[in-house]
């Protein structure tokens, strides 16, 4: 399988979208293996950081990913050479859960990670909003800096993430854009003109087209796989094993 076939040509370089990356059985197995007692509640979603959250210096106390997060996903990443150039391969997975009406503010994942993120979606479909970071522009005639926060100036893209799909974000798409998810109960106006990965979509293309361009949100769980650049194994000798 050559990942180039899955490149999103209408998005910044370089994003890839693979529908049906895992099967329905695999999806159910992963969902049922996520422990129910390890969620960290945030105001607009809940998450689990596996194997651990990063320290204040963005260091990961490394330990292997649990089997349900490893198989069958990591061997497939290897086949696609997604983390081929990353120093440790994949060593971290964030699990985010969004109920209808929940989302995540526009942000960048930043320099703690090797600049590749691979997102597997489970449960419901959701739109990821990607926007060009507004550049710190030259002071304008009235002397105000209209860089960060200058409304609606940067280019924007919508990526529809179907359940069981894989989205890979790398290169400029990782370093030069922000991504977020609107806290809405439905995504509207989805079609071949507004959705950057429309031609790559699987079965939801027909469903959404038949639904007048609307995606009703249901609970979605995302697995975001990354390589944390700074890793500590010494810590385990000093502090003993951490609970995972
Ligand atoms: O759920 C997603 O697809 C995005 C999550 C995200 O942006 C993050 O965890 O940094
Ligand atoms: Fe993110």
Automatic annotation (TrEMBL):
Compositional bias segments (type: Basic and acidic residues): 133-147
Origin: domain of life: Eukaryota
Pfam families on file: 2OG-FeII_Oxy_2 (PF13532)
Signal peptide limits: none
First-listed, main subcellular location of the protein, grouped into a coarse class: nucleus
Intracellular or extracellular location(s): Nucleus
Region Disordered, annotated ranges: 133-155
Keywords: Dioxygenase, Iron, Metal-binding, Nucleus, Oxidoreductase
GO-annotated molecular function: dioxygenase activity; metal ion binding
InterPro entries assigned: AlkB-like, AlkB-like_sf, ALKBH6, Oxoglu/Fe-dep_dioxygenase_dom
Keyword Transmembrane: no
Domain Fe2OG dioxygenase, chain residue ranges per copy: 89-229
Keyword Oxidoreductase among UniProt keywords: yes
A single cellular component GO annotation: nucleus
Stated family: Belongs to the alkB family.
Protein name (database record): Fe2OG dioxygenase domain-containing protein
């Amino acid at each position: 399988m050559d990942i180039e076939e899955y490149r999103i040509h209408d998005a910044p370089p370089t994003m890839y979208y693979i529908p049906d990356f895992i099967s329905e059985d695999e999806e159910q197995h992963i969902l049922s293996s996520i422990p129910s007692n390890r969620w960290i509640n945030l105001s607009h979603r809940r998450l689990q950081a596996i194997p651990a959250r990063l320290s204040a210096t963005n260091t990961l106390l490394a330990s292997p990913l649990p089997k349900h997060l490893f198989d069958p996903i990591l061997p497939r990443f290897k086949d696609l050479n997604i983390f081929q150039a990353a120093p440790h391969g994949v060593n971290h997975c964030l699990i985010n859960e969004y109920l209808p009406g929940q989302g995540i503010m526009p942000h960048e994942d930043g320099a703690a990670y090797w600049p590749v993120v691979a997102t597997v979606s489970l449960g419901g479909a959701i739109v990821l909003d990607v926007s060009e970071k507004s550049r710190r522009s030259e002071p304008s005639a009235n002397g105000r800096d209209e860089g960060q926060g200058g409304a609606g100036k940067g280019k924007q893209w919508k990526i529809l993430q179907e359940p069981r799909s894989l989205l890979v974000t790398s290169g400029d798409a990782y370093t030069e854009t922000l991504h977020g998810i609107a806290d809405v109960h439905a995504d509207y106006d989805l079609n071949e003109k507004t959705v950057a990965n429309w031609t790559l979509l699987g079965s939801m293309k027909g469903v959404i087209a038949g639904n007048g361009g609307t995606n009703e949100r249901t609970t979605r769980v995302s697995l975001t796989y990354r390589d944390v650049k700074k890793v500590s194994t010494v810590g385990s000798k000093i502090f003993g094993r951490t609970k995972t």
